[in-house]
Model the fold of this input.
Amino acid sequence: AVTGELSGRQVRDGIVLLPGLVVGLLASRRLAKYLDHGWTRPAVLAMSTAAAVVLVIGAVA
Done:
């Protein structure tokens, strides 16, 4: 919005997402000791890889 790179709607949408970001950051500090037993990172990487493959296939098809 300031330099013309983002529209007002994009800035507004980003601001709307901020409360969820803050809640997630605060919750993650408390929940990490219960959830992370060495499998969280591989699970996130696997899901990210699957999503990327779907996007690439969708773009090619």
